[in-house]
Structures are given as C-alpha cells and as structure tokens.
Write a structure and sequence with these properties.
The protein is an alpha/beta fold and 426 residues long. It contains 14 helices and 18 strands. The chain has 2 domains: 183 residues, Aspartate Aminotransferase, domain 1 (Alpha-Beta Complex), CATH 3.90.1150.10; 234 residues, Aspartate Aminotransferase, domain 2 (3-Layer(aba) Sandwich), CATH 3.40.640.10. Helices cover 40% and strands 17% of the residues. A hairpin with a 2-residue loop joins strand 1 and strand 2. Helix 1 runs parallel beside helix 13, helix 5 packs across helix 11 and helix 7 runs parallel beside helix 8. The chain is globular and about 65 Å long.
Amino acid sequence: MITHALENAHRRYAEKRPLSRERHARARNFLPSGTTRSVLDFDPFPFTVETAADCHLTDVDGHTYVDYLGDYSVGLAGHSPEAVRQAVTAVLDKGWSLGTVAGEEAEVARMLCERYPSMDLVRFTPSGTEANLVAINLALKFTGRSKILVFDGGYHGGFLSFSRGRPSLNVPFDAVICDYNDLDAVREAFDQWPEQIGCVLVEPMLGSGGRIQAAPDFLQGLRTLCDENGSVLAFDEVQTSRMSYGGGQALLGVRPDLTTLGKYIGGGFGFGAVGGAEPLMLQIARGGEHSYDHSGTFNNNRFSMAASAAMLSTVLTPSCLTELFERGEDLRKRADAVLHEHGFQATGWGSLIGIHPSDTPVVRASDLAGIDRRPVELLFHEMLERGVYIGKSGFVTLSLPQTAETDDHFLTALESSVRVAARAGA
Ligand SMILES: Cc1ncc(COP(=O)(O)O)c(C=O)c1O
C-alpha cells in the first residue's frame, strides 16, 4: 500500500512540474544524480527554484511553497534578509578577493567571543565541516593522542558522518563511536583506551541523526569525563547555536573547550568557525610553541565575513533568538499532538524539529534505525501538495520570517498529510 501510494505521489509530483523535470534530466548529464548535495536528492527529482524571498520559494513551474526546511538550518533569517543584502552590496562596491585582511573578520570574531564565553579566540573556515576538521586536529595535537570519541548518528560534515554501518566518505580518524545519551558507554570507552581519546566531539542535540535532544545530564557528564580523562570536549554547535544568544551551551550551562559554528551565521554565505580556549587556539598562532599552519583561501571570504557581521550585529539579537526558540518549542508540541494520533512523533529542540513515523521514545540514533521511513517520504510529498516544503526525511526548521499564519498553514497541512501517510503505511 505504501509503495503504491508513493508511486502515485511521485507521478502526481512529476506531472505538475514539467520544467523542473526537464532541468533535472539535463543536470544529470553533468552532475552525479543531477544535484550537488546528496541531501537535496529525492524521488522523482527535486524541484528547481526560480525565486526565493522571506520564507517562500517559487519553482520554475510556478508553484510557491512556504519554506519549513530553511536550507537545513542555514536559512534562519529567510531568503532575503535586508541587513545581509546591504552588507553584501557594500562588498560589491568595495571589492573582494583581497589576498589580505579586510577587517570584517576581526569584528566577527569579537562578536562571537562576546556571545560565547567559552571562546577566547576564533578561526574561520569556509564550512562547518572544515571547522570540525580544525577542532579535531587542534584537540589531537594538544593532547598528543590519536583517538576521537563521537556518537552514532553524529553528523559533523560531509567527511565526518558517524552512522554505524552506513558507508561514508569519512576522513579516516581513529573514531570510537558510542550511543548518544549513553554516559556509561563513554565511561567504558575511556576505561578501555586510557590516555588515547584526545577529543570528544558532540552535538548538543543530535541534529541530522534525528533531532534527538540531549538527556539533562548527558553533556555535563561528558564535561566531567573529559576533565577526569584529560580529553578535549568539543561542541559542534553548527545547528544548535541558534538556541540562544550564547548558543546551546548557554542554555545547558556546560562550557566546552572548543565550539564549532557554521550555517545560518553566514546569512546564507559559506561560513564556518572554530573557537575556544586560548591554549588550544594558540597552536595555530604564528610564533607559538607549535605554530601549526592552517590556511584556506576562503577562510576570510569577504562576502561571508560581511554577511556574518550583519547577522551578528543586527539580526541575531538575544530577544529574537529567544522568541524563535520558544516558537519552536510551541510548534513542536502542537505538531507532536497532531502526529501522535497517527502513530508518528515530533522530536527536537527549540526551532529544530524532526518528524518520525513511530511513537516509541527516541533517545539515540539506533532507536530510529529499523523504522520504515517511507511514510515520512509520503508525508513530505503530501506537504508539498499543500504548499509546504520540509526536509525529505522529516526535518522542519523555523526561520524568522515565518509567522503565526504560516505556522497555522504548516499545522493544517501536517494534519491532513499525516492522515494520508499513516493510512498508506498501516
Ligand atoms: C551539526 C553539523 N555540523 C557540521 C555540519 C557541516 O557543515 P557544512 O555543511 O557547512 O560543512 C553540519 C551540516 O549539516 C551539521 O548539521
């Protein structure tokens, strides 16, 4: 029944989008699978966007969607924030690709250190993936150890994806993988490999691995275990830094040694940052004891730096982040109530929500491993039919331009979509 329902959904989708289908067929000649981010690839083909503004996308076939994917959390400020437009326009007037410093990077670093007291110094990268690569290397060099400890379902970038049993293009770090929210497993790993684990890298909420909240004592427990075992605690806050002015770490009251950032801070332009305690960060300062080089042509790309300066100075105020968090908590609870009636559930934290076709509690990625996710794929298509765009695997991300009206539209669409998905999946 679900196979048949999905086939019908794909057929209806394709019939309504002849121009997107044509664009995709052409793209397949030059791009593997016709896209350039695996996460954007879905059946029968992704729609091609013509224009985007605020929280709306319009495709080449003329369909408009209210955007509840938010570019997998990049689009916190929507598709056309005025402050970013002005900052980028100023760069167009002043010039870019300088081969030296422009000044914006120091200003962005200052604002980040102000927000995150755990950061004494900051280094920029073009992406969150690279920020995590730098963080891991800084931790391993600092401790003189070779192993990292990460969590099943942890996603730290295209080359740092730690899902047990799933093939990956990972950088070959010597990784010990534990279950999320399982402090006993982490304790056992430290016992099994004494003085070998140099870095514990963790998302304060398991993001791509299912939007699974950290249990109340989990991150503080990691802090204690890292302290006891001389390991560096690195928080990947690429997604969760949006939870408050001081990020997830401020809400949870846990201070990591290193923090990585990315996504929305660049206002839609490529952005990554790693910041942390001075002794760790000074390893990449010239003339220091070690003085490791860390270069990257686009580390201080002027568009990214100017856009992130605008985001930090004018868009990402404490009150707007708190309101976004609260609206997310509220929307998740309302969505969960709707979903629960049909055996689905909504997980997540603040403005990041995950929809799953199961109502048994989810505390680690393996709780989702055996579940048939096709009902979520059907729900995704049903939402599109109703003019709402979410992630193909059920990710929902709030953005600032959304309103009470768009939230109502989202919930109405969810209610009828989950009914169809649950009936087909039964
Ligand atoms: C938690 C987390 N860390 C790191 C990354 C990688 O960031 P980027 O795609 O900018 O390399 C992502 C991207 O989804 C992420 O969600």
